[in-house]
Design goal:
The model is unreliable at 23-36 (pLDDT under 50). The termini are far apart. The longest helix is centred in the N-terminal third of the chain and has 38 residues, at 2-39. The protein is an alpha+beta fold. Strand 4 (86-92) and strand 5 form a beta hairpin. The protein has helices at residues 2-39, 185-193, 205-213, 215-220, 391-395; strands spanning 40-41, 58-65, 68-75, 86-92, 99-100, 105-106, 121-130, 135-143, 153-159, 167-172, 230-234, 240-246, 251-257, 264-271, 278-285, 288-294, 305-309, 317-318, 324-325, 340-347, 350-357, 367-375, 381-384, 389-390. Strands 2, 3, 4, 5 and 6 form a 5-stranded antiparallel β-sheet that branches. Strands 19-23-22-21-20 form a 5-stranded mixed β-sheet, with no helix packed on it. Strands 7-8-9-10 form a 4-stranded antiparallel β-sheet, with no helix packed on it.
Length: 404
């Protein structure tokens, strides 16, 4: 019995010694796994901030400034899409770990007549930095409290710091009294003769011809153009542009902003008239401006669309094809993987397509679908579904099948 005990003791000792010898290797493997896990994005999963709470920044965009990234989005309630808090702001150094900062733009809780009174609708906030003024400028789609989606306004606010607080300046429709680039008084007279088509049944050939010509643009010219789902884009020359769904969500408009980014110059173009697009995502690659959009099906997802142009003010070509590819039964390409685009974020040698998976019955639980944009042999964008992917690889351009 004693001999058996000694044998067991010696065998146990060898096992312990072997484990001790392997311990550094085990720790190294665990440490590498930890680093890899910190670099991995898992689209559609809960994304906790540093406090452990799911990030609440829906329909948002990201500003890179001062070595940090700032993520702005709709702070949603668990039961309503009305704005009860305002625009949230998160900060990160690596795009993976996010810290919630103070509310960037708060709704007005004291003045029920304020355009941003608590209970209004604030959607798709975007922030850009104006080097000329040193100000941070936020634009957003605004609907007045208890008015549904009739207002179709654009709101603007400014701040001295990226995290805010942002000071609300005003809200209005866009480019009142202005015709799109290329339109003449003769075009206005022609449109006036077609205004009767607005009373026709939607989607009839005659109604569509009137829409494509611009009858809704003409209707709204005096009071300003409707501005719903929106995007901001700062070009390489420092010029900034406001891109939004207009004309009853039937046509995209791209409007130039003033040098301080807080107003419109009056110069704008119509894109894909009558195409019924929203949720624009805009970026540059390979000598083209690319715009990914969605159709208008409420909260339900649909197939993404793709447009391109040599100049941001057009002419724009499209609908070219659905840039989403290689999905699966759970994440079908014909439904943009169950998401809707909101922003394109350049990151190193890559670009991130940011999208929202809306959950209208529990808005604050909406998920984020971040995916790398790759490019085909002809330079066209492609978005492939990935259950997980690496920020480090994206930054190094590893997801570009045919890099520029």
């Amino acid at each position: 019995m004693k001999a058996v005990a000694v044998s067991v003791f010696h065998n146990l000792g060898r096992a312990v010694r072997a484990a001790l010898l392997l311990l550094p290797l085990i720790l190294a493997v665990l440490w590498c796994g930890r680093l890899t896990a910190g670099d991995i994005v898992r689209p559609g999963e809960l994304w906790p901030d540093e406090s452990g709470r799911h990030i609440n920044a829906h329909g948002g965009g990201i500003l890179a400034y001062g070595g940090r990234y700032y993520w702005y989005g709709e702070d949603k309630d668990a039961r309503t899409n009305a704005a009860l808090v305002g625009v949230s702001c998160y900060s990160s150094r690596n795009l993976k770990k996010w810290r919630r900062l103070s509310v960037a733009l708060s709704v007005d809780t004291t003045d029920a007549a304020s355009p941003i009174a608590r209970g209004c609708i604030i959607e798709r906030p975007k922030v850009i930095y104006c080097a000329g003024t040193g100000k941070f400028v936020m634009w957003f789609h605004l609907e007045l409290r208890d008015k549904g989606y009739r207002a179709a306004m654009a709101g603007v606010a400014v701040a001295d710091r990226p995290e805010g607080p942002f000071r609300f300046l005003r809200a209005s429709r866009v480019n009142a009294g202005r015709l799109p680039s290329g339109y003449t008084e003769e075009d206005v007279q022609m449109l006036d003769s077609l205004r009767y088509t607005m009373k026709l049944k939607w989607w009839t050939p005659e109604w569509r011809r009137g829409v494509e010509a611009g009858v809704y643009m003409r209707r709204d010219m005096d009071g300003g153009q409707m501005a719903r789902d929106m995007q901001l884009f700062v070009d390489s020359d420092g010029k900034a542009y406001h891109i939004y769904a207009s004309e009853e969500n039937l046509t995209i408009q791209i409007a130039e902003l003033t040098d301080d980014y807080t107003a419109h110059t009056g110069r704008y173009v119509r894109v894909a008239p009558g195409g019924q697009n929203e949720a624009t995502v805009l970026f540059r690659h390979g000598g083209y401006y690319w715009m990914i959009t969605s159709g208008c099906t409420g909260w339900a997802p649909n197939a993404a669309r793709l447009y391109r142009a040599r100049s941001i003010m057009g002419p724009w070509e499209g609908n070219l094809y659905n840039p989403c590819c290689e999905g699966n039964d759970r994440r079908p390409v014909e439904k943009t993987f169950l998401g809707q685009g909101t922003y394109a974020l350049p990151y190193g040698k890559g670009i991130i397509f940011m999208a929202d998976e809306w959950r209208p019955n529990h808005p604050s639980d909406g998920r984020y679908l971040w995916l790398p944009i790759s490019f085909d042999r002809d330079g066209g964008p492609q978005i492939k579904w990935r259950d997980s992917w690496s920020l480090k690889k994206l930054k190094a351009g590893k997801y570009n099948d045919y890099p520029e």
